[in-house]
Amino acid sequence: MAGNKGRRRFGNVRRLPSGRFQARYVGPDGLERKAPHTFETERQAGKWLTVVESEIIKGEWSAPEAGEIKLDSYGRKWIAERKLQPRSRENYEDLFRLHVCPHLGALALGAIKPQTIRTWRRTLLDGGTTEPQAVKAYSLLRAILNTAMKEDELIRQNPCRIPGCDRYHTPERPVATVAQVLSLAERMPARFSALVIVAAFSGLRWGELAALRRADVDLTAGTVRVPRKLAALRGRMEFGPPKSEAGNRVVTLPAAARTVLAAHLDEYVGEGPEALVFTGDKGAVLRSGNFRRAVDWAAALRAAGMPAGFHFHDLRHTGNNLAAATGASTRDLMHRMGHASMRAALIYQHANSERDREIADAMDRRIAKQAKRAAGKAKAKQKPTKGKKTTRPAREPASDGTAGATGTPMARKIKES
User: Cα 193 to chain center, whole Å?
Assistant: First the structure.
């Protein structure tokens, strides 16, 4: 019994013929387990049992053999059972197969430590893996091990807890001006001109544009509905729901896009409601690779004066920047862009040089106006009174140029400029 002298409250210790001591206990699952090693003294074995008992009481205990499951099998099963878009599933499978399994797949979950992760990441980068790919692989592994820790309780801690490993610097993508967009559209074959205009001024993604049907376009309201997208998978094209729930939206087009879209519908789109709005020369679904070849994308970009490395997806930034410049709220931008988080919307709300110039120009007008008022007040004070000897007014203290400022040399200089 627990109260009997010489009897342990939890587990038991016995001396082996070798003279060393073995610790045993019955876990919460009712199975008896032994310590992974023997101890030199009975006291050491007892301390080990005390630690195990503490873990059980605090709910931190996990079956020791659970951590022996190999990452290879667990990770593949995790991806197979996860609810993912087809394209995301393929991306996860590729990341796991190319960057995780060759280095860590043979390890037991419990054997993966933070130092293991640091060495693995360094190996990837030294072997030529780009930093964005390394970050994606790290984020995937962290998600897999989070499930192993929190849901399946196979490990006590997630070893992917290294600061900075889940981020990388993303250079700001180029933004085309309206003039550049129009110039690029003019250099497209006629059937693709509207595609460029609508892409730039609607903010729709390539897959969303490729999946648009006549039924999704309401020219009277000037809107397009985005209920699905077209994804390029291994060896096939597949229609499916948008990237996220937020992607299922209705976007209002500016007049410039409505006009060219209406003409495009008359010229290139079938009458049926399911007819695709944007297709290849023979009416087939759009594929990005075929499109670039058909329009000689690189040559068209050079002719339109686009920056080097400009992607079709970068057209989306033009419309998003224009929308942000109108003063659209973060929530408005999130809806228009089809984003569930604020992060991307906030990017478009940052101050750019053109808007900053507008602000500076507006400041100039206010400064000049108030400087003129200040100079006028100063002149009125200096006007001599008839019949009285004029005296030079005392110099008033300099001001910050706001209303009420006196005629300082700087105020007069601003007025004269």
Answer: 29
117 contacts 138 by C-beta, under 8 angstroms = yes
* 360, 391 Cβ separation under 8 angstroms: no
Rounded Cα gap, residues 173 and 159, in angstroms? 33
Q: How many CB atoms lie within 10 A of CB 8?
A: 16
Report DSSP state, residue 284: P
Helices 131-146/71-81 angle, 10° precision: 90
Tell me the C-alpha distance between 156 and 146, whole Å: 10
Average pLDDT of the residues in 381-387: 63
The number of beta carbons lying within 10 Å of the beta carbon of residue 90 is 16
Handedness of CA 125, 128, 132, 135 (dihedral sign): negative
Over the stretch 2-11, which tens digit does the pLDDT of each residue have? 444 557 889 9
Q: What are the φ and ψ backbone dihedral angles of 114, each rounded to 5 degrees? A: -55, -40
| 225 phi and psi angles, rounded to 5 deg | -100, 140
Beta carbons of 243 and 338 less than 8 angstroms apart: yes
Token duo for residue 403: 């209303």
Residue positions annotated with a catalytic role = 205, 313, 316, 339, 348
Candidates 375, 383, 363; CA nearest to 412 is: 375
Which of 239, 234, 227, 254 is CA-nearest to residue 318? Answer: 254
Q: What global pTM score does this model have?
A: 0.62
Q: What is the pLDDT of residues 338-368, one digit of tens each?
A: 765 555 545 554 544 455 556 567 767 777 7
CA proximity to 224, closest of 240, 245, 205? 205
Question: Over 139-178, what HEC string results?
Answer: HHHHHHHHHHHHHCCCCCCCCCCCCCCCCCCCCCCCCCCH
Out of 24-28, 211-215, 368-372, 391-395, the most confident range is: 211-215
Per-residue pLDDT tens over the stretch 104-147: 999 999 889 999 999 999 999 999 999 999 999 999 999 999 99
